[in-house]
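Appendix C reproduces, verbatim, an entry submitted by the partner laboratory led by Prof. M.T., so that reviewers can inspect both the input and the predicted structure.
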Amino acid sequence: MGCCTGRCTLIFLCSLQLLAALERQIFDFLGFQWAPILGNFLQIIVVILGLFGTIQFRPRYIVVYTVWTALWVTWNVFIICFYLEVGGLSKETDLMTFNISMHRSWWREHGPGCIRRVVRPSSPGVLEDYSYVSVTGCIIDFQYLEVIHSAIQILLSLIGFVYACYVISIFMEEEDSFDFIGGLDTYSYRQPPQEHVELKPVKPVGRSK
């Protein structure tokens, strides 16, 4: 019963993580955030692997999911520090795009209540530069939306980590018990009990003339 409950809970958590990662991947693609896109892709692959391992009773796959979950929590903590500008980090840098573009978070211009206006510069220039875009009326600033997304990922990952460790321990206990029973069966099969059979001489029947 405990194994079933733990497995069902872990399957539910993995499903939530998968949906959250897919949702985040879509908006990171819209904002050309290449570093988060790569992280989300790995998260999706490992969560599917953990989901498969939970359903198919493969503890090794769940171990991989557990190790990655710790790394995923660390990455999301870094994202929170990045957008809150903790430790000398700045959200205005191109770190999330690997310094290959000037794109920022999609939520910067498309957050709840945001009104986007393109301001023409006084001199000819590239209008796609964010310096010429005016965004007003946002209910929540984009950095807080990114922080909320990362906080949700951390919460789901921590709960999933706990249940993954629990399911791994249950699976290992069941494997040990199966090996013990199998060992007894093999021993009894290889050394069957010896039965003493009493042999009696049989007189040959002579032919009648």
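The longest strand covers residues 115-118. Additional entries are available on request from the coordinating office.
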